[in-house]
Amino acid sequence: MITGVIVRKIFKEENGFTLLEIITVLVLTGILAAIIISRSFNYDAEVRVGADVLKSHLRYAQTMAMNSNSDIYPVWGINGNAGSYWLFQGTDTANIIRLPEDEQFINADRTINLEAKKIKLAGNFTIYFDTRGVPYSAYTSAATNTPLAANMAINVQPLHAATPEIAVTVAPLTGYVP
Asked: Cα–Cα distance between 35 and 6 in angstroms, integer?
């Protein structure tokens, strides 16, 4: 009789989780994992923002050229590579002028830090704008310069991947940046 009481006491205490509790924990874990994964790989937003900022900086360079004194500095432009780009005045691309941008994205040499923006450019580019806003791929003086013959595409990519890629285009003759 004593043995029966002891056996009933041992089996009366239930330890462990119910099936409902286990399913609830698994569902919540799945939802949290989906949110974390979707936020950690959202390269598309960074690339879109980076491309839009580059477009505005190209428009800014064109506006500065159109508002400048044609005798002193007949052209303004933007020069860039995979890690940065910058505004310059005149034909010397080393004559760097600070673009309007948040301090956190400006390097000590006044160039735009693309790594801080988590993007990169697919290649190097240089574009000049004259006092009429016409874009050039090369500009040495008023007599010898090379206007854009076709659309210039500047490809913006995420820092650690090749896709998604957004092409920022500059139209020949007008310098239109869609």
From this structure: 50
Look at residue 108 and tell me whether its pLDDT is greater than 70.
yes
Give the model confidence (pLDDT) of 40-64 as tens digits. 666 688 899 999 999 999 999 999 9
| Angstrom distance (rounded) from CA 53 to CA 8 | 74
- Which domains does the chain carry? 44-170 (3.55.40)
List, in order, residues 6 or more apart from 178 with CB less than 8 Å away: 169, 171
Distances (CA, A) of 47 to 42, 143, 147: 9, 38, 28
Distances (CA, A) of 163 to 4, 98, 150, 154, 169: 70, 29, 24, 14, 18
